[in-house]
Amino acid sequence: MEPTQSDFVTVDRLAKEYGWSIEYIQGLQVEEINNLIEAINSRQRQEYKFLVYIINCAMNGKMPKFDSDNSNEPPRDETAQLLGLMKEINGKVHSPLERK
To answer: By C-alpha distance, which of 40, 43, 46 is closest to 13?
Structure first.
């Protein structure tokens, strides 16, 4: 059977996401590919929701403040808020090679 445009898009997506070669991707089982695409979609939905939240905070002037002495770590109360948000928007996280 000839590859379809959808096949090429799937291979491109996996190659971009994981840095895999076409040959490596061609060696994957269909079920593995489907689970990987599902995992990518789930993570991207979560990232999108979080990005929308951050943009909304910024537009409302409520961006988390970071301690200037230690700019790599947010203050504890902001960390708790971000963790709470992630729990709120977090759906089921799929293992990439989860068997159904």
So the answer is: 40
- Determine contact, residues 49/89, Cβ cutoff 8 Å: yes
Q: How far apart are CA 20 and CA 90, in angstroms?
A: 27
Amino acid (1-letter code) at residue 2: E
| Count of the separate structural domains present in the chain | 1
- Domain limits for position 65: 5-89
First-to-last C-alpha distance (Å) of the chain: 26
pLDDT tens per residue across span 11-62: 999 999 999 999 999 999 999 999 999 999 988 888 888 888 888 888 887 7
25 in Cβ contact with 14 (< 8 Å): yes
